[in-house]
Queue: 4 jobs
Job 1
Amino acid sequence: MMGQQTIVIKLGTSVLTAGDIHLNKPRMVELVRQCAALKLQGHQIVLVSSGAVAAGRSQLAQNVGDSISEKQMLAAIGQGQLIHLWQTLFALYDIPVAQMLLTRADVEHRERYLTARDTLTQLLKHQVIPIINENDAVATTEIKVGDNDNLSAMVAILANANKLVLLTDQVGLFTADPRTNPQAELIAQVHKIDDELRALAGDSGTSLGTGGMATKLQAADIAQRAGIETVIAKGSEADIILKIMNKEALSTTFMRFDAPVEGRKKWLLSAPKSTGTVIVDNGACLAIAQQGASLLAKGVIGVSGCFVRGDLITVTNAQGQAIAKGLCGFSERELDTIKGCHSLDIASALGYKASSVVIHRDDMVLL
C-alpha cells in the first residue's frame, strides 16, 4: 500500500440505498467502518454523498413526484437527515464530520473556489471528515453541477487528493453492457479516455441516481488531467474501499497523467463553464499543444459564442475538436475584429491599445 493519501469517495444513491428508495443503514455502517479503518492508517477521507432526496422521501408519508421543485423540497428535508445519520455513524468511531453544500458557482468563481479549498484544507488538517453534496435545495439549472460524479472530481481537485473513488452499482467499465451481453469484459485499467471508450458508457442503470457511466468518465477525465487516479467499483462488495486501497478490488482504474496541472490551471480544469469558442488554424494548434505557446490573434480563424474579456473560452481546431480552454484577453466582438492579425497590428485594428495575446499560456489548460 502507498503512504498516507487524501482519498475522495463518492457514494451514489444506489449504493446508499442498496437499490431501495430509502437509505440502507447497514450498508452505511459498513462504509463508515472502512473509512474509520483508513483513518487509522493515516489517510485523509472526504465523502461526496448522494442520498438527500432519498432521505427526504423516507420522511414523508405521501408519494412525491419527480419535478425539480419536488426534488428540491425532498433535498431540503433530507439534507438534515442525511448529515445527522453520517454524524451518528462516524461518532461510533469518535470521528467528527462536517457538512459542505456546494453549487457550480462555488467552484466557478476563483475567490469562492479558494474559500471552499481553504475550508476543506482546514477540516482535513483537524482530522474532520468533510461530507459534501450539491446544494440541491436551492441550486437552479444554471448553477447546478448536475451530478455528484462531476462534483466529486471538482472536490478531488479542491482537496488536492491522490485518489478519487466512485462507488456505484457496477463493478466498473465493461467492453459492452454486462446486463445484456454475457461476453462483456471488465476493463481493468484505462490510460486515456477517448471517443471509443466514451461510446462504451451507457445510460444510468438505476432510476435512483442522476449519473450513469458517462458522467463517471467525465469525472475520471477531469481527475486524470489534474493528476488524480480514479477508481470505479461496486459499492455493495464487502470491504470494497479497503480492497481498492490494497489494489485487490474488481474495478476500473483510470491512471493519473504523469504531468498534472497545478494551482490556477486546476481551477480552470475543474469548474468554469466555457462561454464561447475560438477556432484556430493548424499552426496555432501545434504551437499550443507541442511548443507551450500562448494563443495569438494571428492563429485565430473563427469566433463563436458571447463572452467578454476575462471569460473562459474553448479553443478548437478547424474540425471542431477541443484542444484547450483558457481565460480570453478580448471580448468576442474584439476577437472577431482582430482574428488573423499580427500582434503589432491589434491596436490599429481596434483603435485602442490592447493585449498582445488572446489567451496567455498561464491562463490556459490543454485538453
Job 2
Amino acid sequence: MVRAAVLPAVGAPLEVTGIALPDPGPGRVRVRLAAAGVCHSDLSLSDGTMRVPVPAVLGHEGAGTVVAVGEDVTGVAPGDQVVLNWAPACGRCHACSLGEVWLCANALNGASEVYAHRADDGSGLHPGLNVAAFAEETVVPAHCLLPLPDGIPLTDAALLGCAVLTGYGAVVHSARVRAGETVAVHGVGGVGLAALQAARIAGAGRIVAVDVSPAKEELARAAGATDYLIASATTAREIRALTGGTGVDAAIECVGRAATIRAAWDSTRRGGRTTVVGIGGKDQQVTFNALEIFHWGRTLSGCVYGNADPARDLPVLAGHVRAGRLDLGALVTERIGLDGIPAAFGNMLAGKGGRALVVF
C-alpha cells in the first residue's frame, strides 16, 4: 500500500489515503516518485474545466526511480531514473503521421483505465492524465517513461515533464522566437517562468513579464525578464510603449482567460505571433472583428504541451540545465507533501507563487 491524493469526484476535495497498486503486468512499470509538480492542469481536472474519469489519482508532472518491470519491458530496468511522460504518442494516428506528436489522438487513452484500488473500500481508481503522479508510487505503461539524462537532479527533473517542456516549447516551437526579438509573457506561474527562461536562452532582447501579483517581480527578473508589469486594462498599451509603439514580436499567454488572451494579442506588433498556452474554460469567449484580423496580420495559435516531442526535447533541455542556462529550481517556490496540494491549488487560484513541488 502507498499513499496517494485521490480525487473522489469532480469538484470534491482531494483525499490523501492508501491505495493498492498491482504488480506491473506485461508492458508496464512500477515507479517510486521522487517529486511531482502541482500544475494548473491538475486544478482544471479537479474542478471540471477539463474532463477526467473519477475517482482518480491526479498528477502528471513527475520523476522517480523504476522499482519493478513487467514482462516484455526492455527499455528500462529497476534502478533507472525516469521522467513521466503523460502524453505518449501512439505513432499511428494522423497527427503522429504528420510529426505532430503533441496532438496524438490516442495519447490519453490510458486515463480511462482502472490502474489501482483504494485500500479502504477497494473501489477502482483511474490514473489522471495517464501517470497518477500524486502518489508515492505509480504503475504506468513503459511508453509513459523517458530516461532521465545524466547530470539532472532527480527531484527537480519532475518539472521537465510538463512546465518546462510546455514553456520552452511555446517559445521555441510555437512562437519560434529568434535572437534580438521582443517577447511578452503573460502569467508568471511555473509555465510562465519556464517561458521567460526559454526566451532568454533564445536570445530575445526585451522580455516583458506580466502578472497580477507584484510579489512575482523578483522571480520573473531572475528568470530573464527585463521589464515587469502588473496586469491591468492598460497592459497592452504599456507594452507597446516599452517597444517604441510597435508591440512585441511574440506574446506568450500562460493564463487561459479571455481578458489575458486579448491583452496578449493587443500587445503583439503588426505581423507578430501570439501563442496561447493557458487552458481556459468554455465560458471564456474571446472576440475579434474582421477588420483588425486583416489589418494587424498577426498569428494567433494554440499550443498543446509546448508543441513538444518529449523524446527529442528532453535531451536538449538537459543540455541547457547542465550548461547553467536553464535553472529548474528557480521555478519552484514551495516544496510540500501530498497534504499540501489543496493549499497549492488555492495559491494558483489566487495568483501566488511559481511551481509547488510535492517531494516524497
Job 3
Amino acid sequence: MDLDVYVTAHRAEWERLDQLLRRGGRLTGAEADELVALYQRTATHLSLIRSSAPDPLLAARLTQLVARARATVTGTRRSSWRDAAGFLTAGFPAAVYRSRHWWIPTAVLSTLVAVLIGWWIGGHPEVQSAIGAPADLREMTRPGGEYETYYSSHPAASFAAQVWTNNAWAAALCLVLGAFLCVPVLWILFLNMLNLGVGIGLMASAGRLDVFLGLILPHGLLELTAVFVAAGTGLRLGWTVVDPGPTTRRTALARQGRSAVGMAIGLALVLFVSGLIEGFVTPSGLPTWARIGIGVAAELAFLVYVYVLGGRAARAGDTGDVEESDRSAELPFAA
C-alpha cells in the first residue's frame, strides 16, 4: 500500500471527524450519523495502516482520533452496585474456574514440595542444625513456644489486618509478575512452600506435628488456595507471552491482564476472610477439631462458589474480563 496516496485519499475524512468531535454535543441528527460512520471508517483505516504500512506517528494520531470518537459514540458508563454484584457472582468465580487447569496442578505440586521439604528437614538433624542452634529450635517448637504464641502475640484485629495485607501483597505480586516469563512467580511460590516445609519439619522432629497442623489448617486451607490461584494465574499470564494463541501477543496479554486485575480484587476479599480466621479463630480457645472444621468449611464454601457459580458463568461465556463496552477496541490484524 502506498501510504502517501492512502493518506491523501482519506485525510479529509479524518479532519471532518476531528471537526465533529470538537463540537461536542452540539450536533444535528445528520451530523451524529455522519460522526458514527466516520468513526467506523477511521477505525478500519487505522487497522489497515497498522497491518500493511505501519507508520508510528500516523498510527498514534489515528489511535487518538478513534479513541475520542469511540468515547463520544459510546459515552461513559458509571459503575454501579449491579457491576459489583455481577463481578462477585459471575466474573470473578468464572475467571478462577477457567484458570483451574493452571492453579490445581500448581497447588498439588507446591504441596508436594512443602511435604518433601518437611520430610527432609524432619529426618535429618544436620539440616536442622543448619537452620538454627538446637536451643533456639527447642524454644520455637516447645509447648508455648514461638510457633504456638505467634498467632496470639498481637491483638486479633491488628493481626488479621497485617496478615491480610501481607498475603494480598504476595498474591498481587504473583499476578503481576507472571508476565516476566513466570520466573518471579515460581520464586515467590517456592519461598512460601519453603517456610511451610520448615515448620512441618521442625515440629515433626519435636513430635508436635499435630499441634502445628491444628494451627495451620484453620486459616491455611483457604489462604494457600488463594495463593495457588494467584500463582496459577500468574503462570498463565507468563505463558501467554510465550504462546499468545491465535491473536496478537498484545491482544492476548491485554485480555489476560484485565482478568488478572479482576482476580487480584477477588482474591483480596478471599484473603480477607482467611485473615479473619487467622486472627480470631486460629488463636482462639476452641477445640482443635472445631478450629479445623471452620477452616474446612471456608475452603469447601470457596470451592463450591468457584465450581457452581463460576462453572455456570464460564459455560455461559463469562471470562472474567471487563464488559465489551469498557474494553479498548480490538482492531483486525494481518494473519
Job 4
Amino acid sequence: MLGLAGADASAPPDAHRLQEASVSVPSRPDAPLPRPRGRSRRRRAVVAALAAASLAGLMSGPAHASGGGGDGHGPADPELRRRLQALVDTPGGPPGAIAVLTAGGRNEVYRAGTSQLGTGRPPRTGDHMRIASTAKAFSGSVALQLAERGALGLDDTLGRRLPRLPAAWHRVTLRQLLNHTSGLPDYTEAPAFIAELTADPRRRFDSRRLLDYVAGDPLRFEPGSAYHYSNSDNIAVALMAEAVTGQRYEELLAELVYRPLGLRDTSLPQGYRLPEPYLHGYAVDPSEAPEDVSTVLGASGVWASGGIVSTPRDLGAFIRGYAGGLGLGPGLRRQQLSFVQGSSEPAGPGRNRAGLAVFSYTTRCGTVYGHTGNFPGYTQFAAGTKDGKRSLTVSLASQVNSSTNPRLLAGLRELQEDFVCRLLDRRKPGTAH
C-alpha cells in the first residue's frame, strides 16, 4: 500500500496528490517569482506569484504503466545523460531531473541530481509529482471519450450544457474550449481569486465554482477567432463532462483514463499534500539556498486545469494512450489532431501548434504530440508518437519558463528536442549506439 505523507482525511482512499501552474503577472502565466526577504516571505511570494498567474504553465490499443518493469534500463546515450546533468548543474537549475523514453515495452531512464536535497536519492520513475498543465490533456481525454460514446459533441455549447453560466458565454463550444479559442476570461487572473489564494495558500476552493470569479467578465474575443491559453477552458470542459454524465469528474478520470491505461499512481486531489515517495519541487534562486515548495499550495483552486498528481511512469503510459488516439474512431481522431497556431505553456521543443487538448511539437527529427506544464517547483513535458507506441517525459524539480529563467528554458527546449530525436531514432530506447 502506498504511504501518504500526511494524507488528507477527506481525499478518496486511492488519491495521490497535486497540481500545476505557471507563475506570472495576470496576462503572463509565467512571470518570475519575486525575491522575498527570508524563508516565510519567500513562501508567501511563491503563492502570490501563483495567484497572479494564469495557471498556464493533455488508437492503437491500451498502453500499460508497468511496461519495461522496474525503474527502467540505464541511459544508452551518454551525451544525453551528460547534458541532463549539465542542466541540473547550471546556476539556477533544478535540483533534480528525470527523463524517460519508452518504446517496445522498454524504458530508457536518464536522471540527474536528487529527488530531495540532503538525501542523495536520485529521481525515480515511481516518484509522485505535480504534472501542472499537462493535466489539461487528461480533461481532453475525458471529453473525447464521451464524444466517442455520443454523450458529448464537439459543437455542443456552454449554453446547452451549462446554462447557468453567463449568457455572453453560451455560444462557446467544446471544441473551442479544447483548443483554447473560446475567448473565456481566465479566472486565475481575477482579483478576488488572487486575493483569496494569497491570503490562504492552502484554501479549499469549491472547484466547481471557479468560473464564478469571472462570471461578470465579457469574452476576450469572438469564439473561434483567435488563440488564447486560458485555465478557464478546462474547468468548463470538466463541468460539461459532469453535466452530461451525472458523475464527478474525478470518477470519470478513473473510469475513462486511469483504469483503461493501468495508471495506479495518478489522481486529482483537493489538498496540498503529496504521497510518498515524491519528487520534491523547489523554488530556486542562485543567490539563496533552494526552498522546498512541494506542499505550499492546495490543488482545489486549479482542479481540471492542472491539479493532477502522477509519476513519470504513469505519465508516459497516459501520453502514449492519448497521443495514440486512446480508442477514438477515425473521424474524432482527425478532429483531435486538427491544429491551430498556438504554443503550450511553457513552449515545448520545435514548432508548437494546438489541437484538442494536445499540442504538436515539430522538431528537426519529426513530430510528437503531447503537453507541457509548469508550477512552482515543477516543469513537465510529455509527448508520444502518433501510433501510441513511443513516449517521452521530461520532469524538472523547479519551475522553468520564459520569465523565471528564459535562458534555461531555451536550453531545456534544445535538450527536449534531442530527446525527441533519440525517441524517433530507428534504434529503440534501451539499445546502445
